[in-house]
Structures are given as C-alpha cells and as structure tokens.
Amino acid sequence: METKIDEIAEGIYRLSTYVPDIAPPVGFTFNQFLVIGDEPLMFHTGPRKMFALNRDALARIIPPERLRWIGFGHFESDECGAMNEWLSVAPQATAAHGQTGVYVSLNDFADRAPRVLKDGEVIDIGGGKRVRFIDTPHTPHGWDAGVMYEESTGTLLCGDLFTQLGNDRALTDGDVVGPAIAAEDLFKYSALNPGMGTTIRELAKLAPRTLALMHGPSFSGDGAAALRALADDYDRRVSAQMTKAMQRLAA
Ligand SMILES: [Fe+2]
Ligand SMILES: [Fe+2]
Q: Which residues form the ODP domain (predicted)?
C-alpha cells in the first residue's frame, strides 16, 4: 500500500491510502486531511495499523512533531485509532473533539488530556486558517459525531458523509451524491434517524466550496447543493422506514 498526497484546497492536503481488498473489485480509500497553519491540524488519525504509512506521508509535508491538533468525526478505528501513536510522535499535539466524544471515550482513551470543543467552537490555527467544530450527533453514525469546517477555504471536512467506493481521483467536480447513495445501499453505514436530513441541511448553509471526503475523492463545486441532495436521500430512507414501522403498529 502507498499513501498519495494532493493539495485539495489552499494549504489543505489529502493523504490517501487505497485498499483494494475492501469492497473488491473497486476497492476503498482512507483519507486524512492536513490543514497547514502555525499550529497544523490533522483531521482523522487513520487506523492504528496504517500509522507508519500516514506518518511517512505527513513527513513529506511537515515534520510530524510539528502537528498541534488532531481532529476527527467520531470515535472509530479509522477516524482515531492511531491517536496515541500521533500523540507520541508529536509532543505538542492535542486531540480535540466534541463534548460527547471527550466525556464518553477520549478522557479514557487518549494518552494526553484532550480539548473539549463546544458545538460551533473555532480553533484558530494561525496562517489564516480557522477550523470550526460542528456537532452532528448520529450523522452519519456515532453519538459523538461531528464535522470540521475550515472557514478561509470553505472546506467541509465531512468525515464519513458522502462515503463512496473506488479510487477515482483526488479531486472531482463530478457527482458525489449518486456514488454516496450506492455506498449507503451497500454498507448501510448510517444511523438513520429522523433528524438526519435537518442536520445535513444545516451544513449546507455553510455553502462549502470543497467537500473533503474521508472515503472517496474530494469535491470542488456547489457543496450546498450536494449536501441538500444527500439530505433528501436520507429523508427518503427514514420516511420509508417510518412508514414500515407505522404499518407494523397498525397491523
Ligand atoms: Fe465511521
Ligand atoms: Fe471513516
């Protein structure tokens, strides 16, 4: 396996590792995002077993010990499995996550004290980069789920939202909604909940210019339209499930 590096927005690097054995024959990507500032932030740590790959890739951009912030979407192995390895190589680094994730998991799991981020709280990492944490509970999954938004580039670090198969390209202006619907059909990875469409439509209000997908290419274009279309599809799924539940109750 190798980890490819691409700059997907100004000062935001995608570190992408392709795993052909997951969902063959098209395979699956695991992407980390490094946001460059005076205090560099990485969104997702990658799985623990990919740590060496990701550390060597990051070292082609900055010395790993310069890393200051570790963010991620929710407590799960590919999102934060290598957290303690990163904390070990980067003595100034701090994991930063929402209140639920810190109190439920990180206070126990992280080898150094994490920073709690309130919904909407911004970390100013310097160099003009400001990274906002936004709670998205259970969306797409995880009680502690959240996303990060880099304000200066309009980049939504959207974690597992828009997950898709394959290893198309680093950055696309093509359709990211259809492939996400196909992946949801296959993996059923989302915790369908009635608030899901509303949660995703709130993200659309940010009008992001770039969507940084954890699994798939990054998207450049009308992020709001893509988010609204994804929200519509989840509303459709939730509505279908609720109709079935109502029919069972009525039977
Ligand atoms: Fe996940
Ligand atoms: Fe993921």
A: 29-167
